[in-house]
Write a structure and sequence with these properties.
The chain is α+β, with helices and mostly antiparallel strands. It is built from seven helices and eight strands.
Length: 185
């Protein structure tokens, strides 16, 4: 069944997520795995989305807890932009307009299918406080409507010990550019 994991898949995913959690304790100080696991088990639809993040090599991990909403926050924490989400344009609108050399998909469409959100600029910069990400790749990030209306989209990476935010035509795509997502559970 689509968007549902078997009990074996759930167990395997929880083990993978626990491994990410234990290997990277600097990302989630004062958060206990047992509480995260209980929350995950109570939200099987979110487990499916996390499995999609993992399947596309995003290495999702807990990066925070929102006390106002009582939700754990997961980001893609792979060292480079997730391999299973590269060579894609920004959104479906430009994908449909492109006549030649169409990419297979768009970042916005893939994120929607996976049940996740693209990181915005602030979230991307927060992620970079937890390690060095996208030193060889780049990631599309949520683009403000006024930029998108003019045909552009923004992406980010980490070079020269600095987080850079750039612009490109939303229809562009590159083998080294994917997107990073977030999910609240």
């Amino acid at each position: 069944m689509k968007n549902k994991l078997s009990s074996e898949q759930i167990e395997e995913l929880l083990n993978v997520l626990e491994t990410h959690f234990e290997k990277n304790t600097n990302r989630h100080k004062d958060i206990e795995w047992a509480k995260v696991k209980a929350k995950l088990e109570a939200n099987p639809d979110k487990l499916w989305s996390l499995d999609e993040m993992e399947r596309t090599e995003g290495e999702p991990d807990v990066v925070g807890f929102d006390k106002n909403t009582n939700e754990y926050i997961f980001y893609d924490c792979s060292a480079e932009s997730p391999k299973g989400r590269r060579s894609i344009c920004y959104d479906h609108e430009v994908l449909e307009k492109r006549k030649e050399n169409k990419p297979a998909n768009s970042a916005i469409n893939m994120a929607e299918e996976m049940g996740i959100e693209l990181l915005n600029e602030e979230q991307y910069k927060e992620l970079q406080q937890l390690g060095k990400f996208d030193a060889k790749t780049s990631s599309w990030i949520k683009t403000p409507a006024d930029i998108r209306k003019l045909g552009g989209a923004i992406f980010s990476d980490f070079r020269y010990n600095t987080v850079f935010v750039y612009h490109n035509g939303a229809d562009s795509y590159y083998a080294a550019r994917g997107f990073r997502g977030s999910l609240r559970v």
